[in-house]
């Protein structure tokens, strides 16, 4: 296989990728990886200034066309306007990454969880992904090519207590992903989801710093013995976005260091390493990494 052909298989050159929640965390890491592969990038975020800074950082680092916009993804009019603006600036959306999301505000049993918290989870994660997909599918179908990647979670695959709203939303994302994958599969569009494990995003790092989560507890459950980095999830999403990934459809891909497939978390598989295990992983991505603004 020639080097040129090999590179083309991993390229998104000439494509346009729109990432919601793209100003930080997994969203920004995904936008960066798609930009590294040559895609133009539209960053959509609730905070307009953060979205603008993220787009500027990506354009500066990777030399690709970038634009930004602000939208509450649960607002149908705002979604349509933001996507229309992105298409006006860059052209039709080829890749949609539905990364906008919010965390469970507090860990609580069902009896103590306000229904408003559950509704908020559903609105951002599920309604948002639905509205954004609705807006881009006609153009993708007309061009005969599209990639939609949703964000599930290990909580969409496992039963964990005191997170019911988040779990409901992520299980719904799995159902939406599979249903839509069948619906649009013969239009040249694939629909997949990634299910991240415990990832060191800015939000989870803040929870670690506040003592709300314990690094070692969740690292121990994963056979990898560590948490993941946003770049590792972004790498998986960019792979699903490639033209060469067209035979992968309706998949919920765990990116979790083996967290969901470990049968007995009490079985002795050796001591989990400390956070220092992340150093070589950070180094692996450092050459193509742009710090989130």
From TrEMBL:
Domain annotation Ketoreductase: ranges: 15-202
InterPro entries reported in the protein's UniProt record: KR_dom, NAD(P)-bd_dom_sf, Sc_DH/Rdtase_CS, SDR_fam
Key words, A-Z: Oxidoreductase
SUPFAM superfamilies: NAD(P)-binding Rossmann-fold domains
Family named by the database record: Belongs to the short-chain dehydrogenases/reductases (SDR) family.
PANTHER family in the cross-refs: 3-OXOACYL-[ACYL-CARRIER-PROTEIN] REDUCTASE, SHORT-CHAIN DEHYDROGENASES/REDUCTASES FAMILY MEMBER
Protein name: SDR family NAD(P)-dependent oxidoreductase
Classification lineage: Bacteria, Pseudomonadati, Pseudomonadota, Betaproteobacteria, Burkholderiales
């Amino acid at each position: 296989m020639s080097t040129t052909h090999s590179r083309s298989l991993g390229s998104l050159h000439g494509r346009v990728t729109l990432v919601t929640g793209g100003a930080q965390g997994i969203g920004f890491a995904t936008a960066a990886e798609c930009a590294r592969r040559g895609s133009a990038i539209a960053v959509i975020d609730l905070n307009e200034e953060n979205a603008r800074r993220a787009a500027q950082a990506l354009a500066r680092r990777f030399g690709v066309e970038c634009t930004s916009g602000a939208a509450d993804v649960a607002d149908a009019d705002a979604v349509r306007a933001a996507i229309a603006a992105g298409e006006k600036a860059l052209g039709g959306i080829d890749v949609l990454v539905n990364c906008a999301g919010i965390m469970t505000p507090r860990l609580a049993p069902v009896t103590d969880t306000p229904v408003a918290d559950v509704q908020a989870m559903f609105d951002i994660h599920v309604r948002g992904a639905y509205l954004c997909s609705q807006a881009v599918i006609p153009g993708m179908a007309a061009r005969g090519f599209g990639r939609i990647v949703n964000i599930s979670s290990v909580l969409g695959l496992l039963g964990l207590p005191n997170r019911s709203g988040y779990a409901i939303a992520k299980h719904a994302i799995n159902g939406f992903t599979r249903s839509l994958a069948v619906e649009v599969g013969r239009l040249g569009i694939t629909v997949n989801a990634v299910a991240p494990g415990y990832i060191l995003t800015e939000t989870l790092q803040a929870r670690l710093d506040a003592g709300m989560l314990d690094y070692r507890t969740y690292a121990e459950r994963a056979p990898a013995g560590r948490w993941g980095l946003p770049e590792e999830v972004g790498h998986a999403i960019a792979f699903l976005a490639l033209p060469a990934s067209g035979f992968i459809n309706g998949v919920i891909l765990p990116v979790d260091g083996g967290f969901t497939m470990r049968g007995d978390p009490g079985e002795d598989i050796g001591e989990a390493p400390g956070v220092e295990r992340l150093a070589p992983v950070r180094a692996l991505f450092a050459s193509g990494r742009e710090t989130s603004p």
